[in-house]
Task: inverse folding
């Protein structure tokens, strides 16, 4: 089952994984303050707590693939 791994830019340590993204990631970005991570996979967008990986908000209203995310 596909998954994506988020690693620290400072230490390269694995922070968390985002399992179950069969369409792969289309886009990823961090919020300006670094607290949130938005990831698009297929027609879904999930905003996660960047420290824990816990989902904060999910959006699945798109009819096609999402190719960009921004805060």
Result:
């Amino acid at each position: 089952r596909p998954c994506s791994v988020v690693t620290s830019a400072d230490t390269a340590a694995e922070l968390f994984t985002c399992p179950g993204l069969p369409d792969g990631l289309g886009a990823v970005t961090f919020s300006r303050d670094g607290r949130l991570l938005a990831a698009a996979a297929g027609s879904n967008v999930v905003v996660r707590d960047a420290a824990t990986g816990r989902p904060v908000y999910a959006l699945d209203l798109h009819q096609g693939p999402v190719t960009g995310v921004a805060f």
The chain has no helices and six strands. Strands lie at 3-7, 14-19, 27-30, 36-41, 44-49, 55-59. Residues 48 and 55 are 4 Å apart (CA to CA).
